[in-house]
Structures are given as structure tokens and as C-alpha cells.
Amino acid sequence: MGLVLVCAVNLSVSKDAAQETVSKHGQLSVSGVHLVDKNGDKVQLKGMSLFWDVWKPQYYNKQSIDGVHSSCHANIVRAAIAAATDDGGYVTTPEKTLERLYAVIDAAIADDIYVLVDWHDHAADTHLNYSLKFFDTVSKKYSGVPNILYETFNEPIAQSWDDVVKPYHQAVIKTIRANEPNNIIILGSPKYSTGIDQPAGNPITGQKNIMYTLHFYAGTSDQGLRDLGTRVLNGGLPIFVTEYGTVNGDGDGPVDTEETRLWYEWLDKNSISHVNWAISDKQEGASALVPNTAAADVCKENFLTESGKLVVAHNKA
Ligand SMILES: *[C@@H]1O[C@H](CO)[C@@H](O)[C@H](O)[C@H]1NC(C)=O
Predict the structure, then answer these.
(1) Which residues form the Glycoside hydrolase family domain (predicted)?
(2) What is the CATH number of the domain that holds 207?
(3) Residue range(s) defining the domain that contains residue 300
(4) Contact 94/58 with Cβ under 8 angstroms?
(5) 3-class DSSP state for residue 42?
(6) Fewer CB within 10 Å, N- or C-terminus of the chain?
(7) What is the pTM of this model?
(8) How many domains does the chain have?
């Protein structure tokens, strides 16, 4: 009886994302519209995004990532790598940026979780040569490591998909694929990654293991955006929610618990992976952590905000 029980537990997929590790699921790929694991079974990653590395570098380390896995119950962490902000980024300080990124990647590997390498830039098309250098460097260093996923362009704004964003992604895909033939590459869609109809109408062809970003903030985006998501899924476009918030689209405002639950239902029903914004102690609604939270206390119960509590409860159930 005991043996049967143990086997049953080992074979099932836990709703606690913390238990659905890289050693269990291994190399990911895309099958139809679904993210699947090494056995070809559907897998749904649930996790946390770090805040822009230039502004919250205190969470770009092993202690923090340990907390993301064990206390936030996440199986993916997103490193939001600033390209060019008023306070710097990869364009001005590439070594410092890579040091922070590598700390997060190496911690994620040690902790047996996935890690999303995000070029966090709203104007990535104007920094293409830097982006190519960045993705070439990282994909060379971590070639063949199953933990890694790439996100080439966080949130294009008004740039044209057909003329600007799609050609940008194609250039970055080519660069990554020269070093890394298999890992998932996720492509930002226009209008802060809510304009998913645009890539659906003109997708990138001739590539495997490509997905497209849909971002939502529950206080701003509701059934209309879910319906659009359902339509593009039905049309065959694989979706990954690389960023979502429980609050308004500006990252602030009250937690919209009811709308967030409707989003979770939709994500779970469609097995769509999703990553919450953000591991941050900035005083704003989207932050998962209360002000002055240390890396060692990431997602410990007493340090979670209202948003953080909602997200962590979902990650483990
Ligand atoms: C990118 O292009 C700019 C403008 O030509 C140049 O100054 C810069 O050195 C280039 N950077 C890289 C990483 O290629």
C-alpha cells in the first residue's frame, strides 16, 4: 500500500510549482500551442520576475533565488535585464550587467528551476547591435543548458510588428540559434505585449520552439484580452505570459483579486506558463515584497505584500 502511494505521488504532476523542477521536466519544447517537457507532456511553469536589474540589484543573487524557489513556490525566475535606462544598463555597463545575470542563472541551475533571460527594453529595436552581442554572449556561455529560456524584447510599444519588431526578433533568433539550437525563445508582441493579434496575423515561420508574449495586469486587462488570447491560441499561436500583475497596468494601484482569479482560471485551463511582476520591495501595488525586504527573506510569509500573498498561494496550488 505504502509503495503504491509513493509511486502514485511520483508520477503525478503537483500543483505546487516548486516541485516541478528541471530535473523532473528537463528540456522544454513547443508542441502545437503547448509548452511540453522532455517526455512530450504539457508543462505549465509558474514563477516570479525580478525587477529591472539596475534598480533592484539586491535580488540578483543566490539567497534571493533560493527564496523564489522554496518560499515563492516558483519553478521559473525571470531576470529583467535593463538595456538602456537613465540609470544605466547593458549598453553602458555590460560587465556589471552580465555579472548580475550570471548570478541569477547559476543560482537557478543550482536550485533546479528554469530561468528566463529577458532583454528588458521598450526600444530594443534601437539597440539591436547590443542585443545581438548580449544574446550571443549568454547563449554561447550556457549552450545546451535546459534551464534557460530567452525573451528577446520585453514590451514593444507602438513599433510596427511587420516592419520593425518581427525583423528584430528574426535577427535575435538567428544569433541565439547559432549557439543554442533547442531552448525556448519568447517574442515580445506590440502594445506592451498585449497586441498578440499582430504576430498571429504574421507569425515567424521556419523556426521551432518559438512562443509569443502576452502580458496582462488584472486591474487593466480583463475578458476582452482573454478572448483575444483564446482566439490566437485557436489559430495556433503558442503563448507565454512572461509578465503579469495583480494590479493596474502601471504596476500600481489596488490588487484586483477577483480579476486575477479569472486570469488564473484561464491560464490553468489553457496550460499557459506565467511569471509575476515582481520580486521588488518598491512601494507600489505590484511588488511582492514589503519595503526593505532582504534577499534572505524573499517570499517569507511576513515579508509578502497583498499581491505577493495572492501570487504565492497560486504558485503552490
Ligand atoms: C553599436 O552601434 C553603435 C553605433 O554605431 C556603436 O557606437 C557601438 O559600439 C555598437 N555596439 C556594439 C556592442 O556593437
Answers:
(1) 36-282
(2) 3.20.20.80
(3) 45-315
(4) no
(5) strand
(6) N
(7) 0.95
(8) 1
